[in-house]
Design goal:
heterodimer, A: Arc Repressor Mutant, subunit A, Arc Repressor Mutant, subunit A, three-stranded antiparallel beta sheet, 11 strands, elongated, B: mainly alpha
């Protein structure tokens, strides 16, 4: 049997291991399972980056129809990733700081860091500079749903807050109270 | 020679002995010179041959095969290391070529080890090594791989070529495969990589306990098998090294 790569309808290139039936089983051999986990971590991260997906839930492995179906299921070989297996992969990712439980204090839903919060902070600041919005007060909505789509469109607010906080440490952002909530002001890099 | 008597005869004898000595050393000098010139001639021819055919030896597998046959029939090892082989290896650069191939074999074996447990099909290995070398690397054959693995032996890496179910595989971990494991690998190859207990019972006439024990042993012990618990019917075992991987 030949194991080949496969391009999904969304244009994502699945590695050949995704058509290897045991890839969807938790392996009793710990060395083999480490390989499986690492491959899944890479797959989840690259797929999230490809589709710009931020949230992964255990539910996504429970019922079909999720935006993660292309990787969590392989209809061609009739295999799927089981929720318990996904839960273990997620906890391995959490240990490597590649995901963060969101909201905190539960383990069924995570923010996937296909860019690290530090990287998001730079993307955010670059966007403010390039769109000429330094020093003006922006709402979170202005950032997550801008008129011209940006790399930050649809970024979840908890992740946005982390990025703003990181910029705050170097004096490049300020959270400001505005009527009806919070706003943020970006400042030029202080030399 | 007439043997005279008296002192004069003694002198004569001494004198002729000296002449013979001179003659004999002259003769052996000619022989040595002759040998030197032959050797020089041989060396020049070899250098010429090497310069002319070096590229063909490296890039054309059938030419390389013929060349190696020729070398072995005259008792010369063209691959004897750079130091040991002296100007042979130096002129041909074949030692380096072989070592380079060895390194590439190790590269492929090590990088695929986590999925195949240190056992790779020869065809698969050839394909992956060729890919690694790119088009300019020329075509390599099974014979080249076997030869390179031999050059790796002094390193004590435990690389070995084993024959399983009529086809060659390369084992890159120094562990013996027992008979039952070899039988399972052979069945896996026939079945496209997948093995279940029933296959072994039907094809090999094993009892279920033996089949289960052997499969579990390969699964848990060596990592040569992977488990598939979503298969219809029974627990299925898959052998990655019996399958063709695209990437």
């Amino acid at each position: 049997m030949a194991l080949s790569t496969h391009t999904t309808p969304s244009g994502f290139n699945l590695p050949s291991i995704h058509s290897f039936p045991p890839f969807f089983t938790e392996q009793p051999n710990p060395t083999t399972q480490t390989t499986v986990t690492n491959q899944w971590i890479r797959l989840i991260t690259t797929y999230a980056r490809h589709r710009k997906l931020f949230i992964l839930r255990i539910e996504d492995a429970e019922t079909p129809g999720s935006e993660w179906d292309e990787i969590l299921r392989n209809e061609r070989i009739n295999r799927r990733l089981l929720p318990t297996h996904l839960s273990n992969i997620i906890s391995a990712m959490s240990a490597k700081n590649l995901v963060e439980y969101e909201p905190p204090k539960q383990t069924r839903s995570v923010l996937v860091y296909w860019r690290l919060p530090e990287e998001w902070a730079e993307v955010l600041h670059d966007w403010a500079v390039k769109t000429g919005q330094l020093n003006s007060i922006l709402t979170f909505y202005d950032i997550t749903d801008p008129q011209i789509e940006s790399a930050l469109t649809n970024i979840p607010v908890p992740l946005l807050r982390r990025a703003i906080a990181i910029l705050g440490k170097t004096g490049r952002s300020q959270i400001i109270a505005i009527p009806g909530g919070e706003g943020v002001r970006f400042l030029a890099r202080s030399k | 020679m007439r043997r005279g008597v008296g002192l004069a005869a003694f002198d004569l004898q001494e004198q002729s002995k000296r002449s013979y000595d001179v003659l004999s050393s002259e003769l052996s000098k000619t022989q040595i010179d002759n040998l030197h010139s032959q050797l020089n001639h041989f060396r020049t021819s070899l250098a010429h041959f090497a310069a002319e055919h070096r590229e063909s030896i490296k890039s054309d597998p059938s030419f390389r095969h013929a060349f190696q046959q020729m070398c072995s029939s005259i008792g010369v090892d063209p691959l004897a290391g750079p130091r040991k082989g002296g100007w042979w290896a130096e002129l041909l650069g074949l030692g380096d070529w072989q070592y380079e191939l060895g390194v590439q074999i190790v590269d492929v074996c090590v990088s695929t080890r986590e999925r195949n447990g240190g056992l790779i099909d020869m065809a698969e290995l050839l394909r992956m090594v060729s890919k690694l070398r790119g088009v300019s690397g020329g075509i390599i054959t099974e014979e080249d791989v076997v030869r390179s693995i031999k050059t790796l032996q002094p390193l004590g890496t435990g690389y070995r070529v084993v024959e399983i179910g009529g086809s060659k595989m390369v084992r890159s971990v120094p562990k013996e495969l027992d008979e039952d494991q070899a039988a399972i690998l052979a069945v896996a190859r026939e079945e496209g990589g997948r093995v279940i207990e029933d296959h072994l019972i039907q094809k090999k006439g094993w009892i279920r306990e033996r089949a289960r024990a052997a499969l579990e042993n390969m699964l848990l012990g060596d990592g040569i098998c992977w488990l598939d618990d979503q298969a219809e019917g029974s627990r299925a075992y898959w052998v990655p090294s019996a399958m063709h991987w695209d990437a």
